[in-house]
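Notes to self, AP-1 complex subunit gamma:
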Amino acid sequence: MPAPIRLRELIRTIRTARTQAEEREMIQKECAAIRSSFREEDNTYRCRNVAKLLYMHMLGYPAHFGQLECLKLIASQKFTDKRIGYLGAMLLLDERQDVHLLMTNCIKNDLNHSTQYVQGLALCTLGCMGSSEMCRDLAGEVEKLLKTSNSYLRKKAALCAVHVIRKVPELMEMFLPATKNLLSEKNHGVLHTSVVLLTEMCERSPDMLAHFRKLVPQLVRILKNLIMSGYSPEHDVSGISDPFLQVRILRLLRILGKGDDDSSEAMNDILAQVATNTETSKNVGNAILYETVLTIMDIKSESGLRVLAINILGRFLLNNDKNIRYVALTSLLKTVQTDHNAVQRHRSTIVDCLKDLDVSIKRRAMELSFALVNGNNIRGMMKELLYFLDSCDPEFKADCASGVFLAAEKYAPSKRWHIDTIMRVLTTAGSYVRDDSVPNLIQLITNSVEMHAYTVQRLYKALLDDISQQPLVQVASWCIGEYGDLLVSGQCEEEEPIQVTEDEVLDVLEGLLVSNLSTPVTRGYALTAIMKLSTRFTSVNRIKKVVSIYGSSIDVELQQRAVEYNALFKKYDHMRPALLERMPIMEKTASNGPTEIVQTNGEAEPSVVEAKHPPPVTQPTNQANDLLDLLGGNDVVPVIQTTVPTKPASAGGELLDLLGDLSLSGGPAPAPATSVPSSQPAFLLDGLTSPPLFNDIAAAGIPPMTAYNKNGLKIDFTFERANPNPNIAVITIHASNSTEADMTDFVFQAAVPKTFQLQLLSPSSNVVPALNQGTVTQVIRVLNPQKQQLRMRIKLTYTHKGSAVQDLAEVNNFPPQSWQ
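result:
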């Protein structure tokens, strides 16, 4: 058989291929020849064939059939064969293949070989692809080589020990004695690998970290020698002595000094020296300075040193290299919370980075700019960020608009500035703002009573200029509907009022209804605004015509609104002023579980709760916290306490009857249901035929039960069903007292799992009369949409004979008819 071609000739041949197919054909032909040679057990050219196979593997072609040949080369006595064999093992084998275990004995023999280069090959291979089994078997040999005086072997053994520790962390203590003298070595290669080994051990074991903290002075001394030493051609890189070793030492010092006062104090001086003496004109120096900054920020360093570190990052921002600027911005973003004032000094440089062409730098600069905003610089920073919002790419607009909203809400110097800023964002990036920006701005405007005339005038002007930004149009429509009378009357004091007639305002709103730019939600806002103006303007007939036209709209939502508004003009015209009266001031409330009534754009979402009023004054202020203590877990729904609704003699009472099952948000007065349309609004006339709250309950033949009977207090439950919704069970509690003294300050609380919703109405009294001379009643409404077995935890609080009594109980024996 002719001798196979050399590796050099194969490379030259493959490079002459003009197409991928031609190259693939050459590779397949050579692989076939190599396979034939392997089958014939050709020992002469095995090394050459494996070398060619490794080249083909590097090009991405399959070479797994050469794995066993690598093992044969490793077993050879020739160094050239071993070198290619070990290289092949590192490239073609890994711990997922059982074949690699066949190497264990060969590596063990080579670790004890008389030639240091063979030992080095074995250490490299074990440190590269040794499995946990191999590491356990060969850790002793590695530890022995770590103690040798040969620096060539010690540096390789240290790196191999790092791999062993990563694979088998429990073998860490085996290498502890060998680490004692590693840092006293003069050879930089050994020093470097020793620092890597110590770093690995400290990161993996708190005990090792505490043990090696005593090495801080020695590490400081090594780092100082590197800085102060003169030119050494062996270690010099761009005029800096061994920057790789310096970076590794700084990284180890960061780990050792974190959370330790003594170690941090010992390294403060050397860190200051490195920060001030390192040359910044070359990338090498910048790498060392960056590691120095990270170390200063992580340890318990002095305040002056931290300022020095932030100033270094500030200089990085002026560097022409984009990578260095990005690294500086990222590092400043991490430190801005702890060293806010020091970072503030570089605010102008950071803002300049917003103009960078690199998108990643712009994003980091934007995030850092928002982190720097405070009450003192809010006006200047918002000016820069709004300018950035005008000119930035679409991918930034959503995050930038969101950041402006949050910053303005937190630091706004005045309500007018706040409103102007939000309107500027909606004008320039309205299509990119979050969904909650519309209700949030509406709430801000509603609560700024003195700004109503100014705001509606500004928004009306914005509508005349541009109707493409839908969130802006929705807010403007809402404001015109609420405060259209202020717009027409020209009562604005903050700026020169404009002269607007009722017909001009209605023309703008009608234009929104027919515009192709308007979304269905925006049309809903516009129609509701026109309807609200029927109580503020005199052009009622025109408004009736507009509303009646949309009674046959193909948009079901718009049609529903129009039909309901038409009904208001006819059958319920006497109630229209009460329904469409101006919105009261809205208060933000934290979420309180599924049973809370959430105000969205002025409309209340339907819920099992009928009406929400302020709790009675006798209710304890810490009731919610007590209830959470009662529940003892997160699988329950908190309770909403309400007072029993009474029917006023005014139109407001008729409004409650009209709305039937609709939830009304609590406040000084019932919230008009038509104030602001939302994406899924409650229908205004839902429940026109529904009777009042307690007239819709019919007896369901459910047997009563005793839920509690202790210390003379007895709690009985009676059950009824709600007609409109069979999923709602109405439970009436009857509390009686058989003792000789009244029970005063009586409070009954209840909670149910999250799959239920519960409303607890106010009790008939807070005194349970003695000797069963009367009962206290209280109504509970429970929504059980999944028809699950009802479970309830109750908490009873009362005062009896001058002593406060509190008791807990769990009720699980509800009759099946009450929940099925």
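- The radius of gyration is 40 Å.
- The longest strand covers residues 743-753.
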